[in-house]
Fold this protein.
Amino acid sequence: MKISALLFGLLAGTLSALPLGALAQQPIVIKFSHVVAHDTPKGLAAEFFAKKAGEMTKGKVKVEVYANSTLYKDKEEMEALQLGAVQMLAPSLAKFGPLGVKEFELFDLPYVFDNYTELHRVTQGPVGQSLLKKLEPKGVTGLAFWDNGFKSFSANTPIKTPADLKGKKLRIQSSKVLEEQIRALSALPQVMAFSEVYQALQTGVVDGTENPVSNLYTQKMHEVQKYLTMTEHGYLGYAVIVNKKFWEGLPADVRGQLEAAMKESTAYANKIAKEQNDKDLEGVKKSGKTQVYVPSAEEKLAFKKALAPVHAKMESRIGKDLLQSVYKETGFDPNKL
Ligand code: LMR
């Protein structure tokens, strides 16, 4: 834990909470911390928001973006937000369980979304809105959902069938649904902060991992993973969240301008997500370090069937009604494969 960073953040949080008159000419600072590289869907969207927020508030707000876990790692950033040491984050939807909002893990269910269109029916519709509301009692306000993409498995041995992952140690994010997913493959789940994955793969602490290609490529994981199979077995995206007290303490006009900036940034994030992932897949291929394998429809079905039991096992964790409302939007039925 970077104590100095936490104290610094707390001090900055206190200053930004001072009566506005006291700091009339000082901009309100929003520290936006995240764990991925700058040139990822989330990294670029965070910078886009910083620019828009400055423009739309006419300089009344200054958004400082801290990429690549430079300020906080996964678990710490959630704590820092609740303490007010940072004001804004965009953690992946797989990281809300430790905050006590386990319903977000529905996004981790294997193959529940076939594409971005199905996904947006959930994230940009009433189900998404009801999920964001669940954050309020935790002192957190949810502003938007930002896309990344669909995760694929990588390892140092070829992956063509679910059996190829048997016994492998696979790094995952802190989600019980992901743990169950890895167990369904008879593999061993290892929860680990994103910032530690490259080294864990390099030193063999874990054998493989899952992520959208944009995360794999920008962290150079392809340099330490010989095989990437485009299983696209699950979705990875983000909820943009703010410290509730800070947000509600903003002057109403400034908050409205920031909401407008967020709306534009969300459209931008969700436009570039696929483009970035497609571009980075080309980067992985060109590097010549990782062999990219696209499974046939039959091979993909074998993964779908192997992972389908995760849905029933996790139903009580996610909530039956919520799950049914997601299936209704996407048309997915784990019993009909
Ligand atoms: C991961 O930890 O694998 C990802 O959630 C990182 C991110 O924020 O995209």
